[in-house]
Amino acid sequence: MSFSIDRYKEESRKLDISGVRWEDVRQYPLSKGDLFCLHYMMDIENHVSLYLSHLLVTRACMDPILTAFLACWNYEELWHGENLGRMLNEYGIEFDTQDRIAQIRAGLGFQNTFSLFNTMAGSWLFKDFSAIYLTIGAINELATATGYGALSRKSQHPVLQDLLARITKDERRHFAFYFNSAKEWLQGNPTAQRLDRFMLNRVWVPVGQGVKKLEEVDALALYLFDDAEGEADLIRIDEKIGKLPGLEGIRLMTKALEGARERAGRRPGWGLQLIENEEWAVRPTRYRPVAELTTRRSQREGMATLEPDGVLAE
Question: Where residue 282 falls among pLDDT bands split at 50, 70, 90?
Fold first, then answer.
């Protein structure tokens, strides 16, 4: 395999933001579309650890190379989300990061548990499950890197462009691991190739769908890719994934854009109305996530259980 896991483990680290000119963020405007995409991307980067929990109950966790990669990958993605959030904060948009993450996870409800059991069952039912997971990983990492490139092109914001270029370097390394691992698994394995293609055409969804509603996914796609340059980006993704054994001619990204366009054609304002109405805030669920879901209490509640010297009361 051309990807060196040993080298990756040695080089993996938090995102290098030295030299990012945070002090200049407010000097350049960001459109409503840019801000919508930044919130979306931040939320999905921050969701990686929950996605990881799904993988670790599958047969994929038996592979020490894969689990070594996932440990580093999870850490790197954490800092992507942190720094996209900082970008928004520096621009003047305030939110509590931990509460936002908890609210999003609370909003998943039963869907998260159902997905977890489906993934676990599927992985033990199909011995070639890893081929599916690795291929989806390759698609999603390349799509993410491409999305960052499209946002950089759209925004023309120099500080954001610098930050996204740094994040994209990580995403392309992640893509290299997934792509080469999927190729290795699929090569000379016609059963895995058939299963991979069958499942991709039925279960793959664009990055973020499930965490985000379909209209939000479409809003992102239409803002970033609904022009000649954006569509060409998606065609290149399909062509690259089509180079994997058994996936020649597959169309996933371009079909997703066609679907978004079709829905927007049937429903005037579909997707883009979310951008225009600045609907990137997370609505509170009926839960108090930090308290009920994580067993943490608010600062005031927590202090009530402490003695003056900070020792827990009996």
Answer: low
3-state secondary structure of 105: helix
Which DSSP symbol is given to 280? T
The rounded distance, in Å, linking the Cα atoms of 152 and 183 is 30
Q: Which long-range contacts (CB under 8 A, 24 or more apart) does 196-200 make?
A: 196/128, 196/131, 196/132, 196/135, 196/244, 196/246, 196/247, 197/246, 197/247, 197/250, 199/132, 200/132, 200/135, 200/136, 200/139, 200/247, 200/250, 200/252
Count of beta carbons in the 10 Å neighbourhood of residue 98: 13
SS3 assignment, position 254: helix
The CATH number that domain 27-299 falls under is: 1.10.620
pLDDT at 205 over 90: yes
The residues near 9 (Cβ < 8 Å, ≥ 6 apart) are 68, 72
Contacts of 19 (CB under 8 A, 6+ apart): 162
Contact 208, 50 (CB under 8 A): no
Alpha-carbon distance of 9 to 72, in angstroms, equals 7
- Please check the confidence at residue 1 and state whether its pLDDT lies above 60: no
Most confident of 107-111, 221-225, 280-284: 221-225
Segment 110-140, tens digit of pLDDT: 676 777 777 777 777 778 888 998 999 999 9
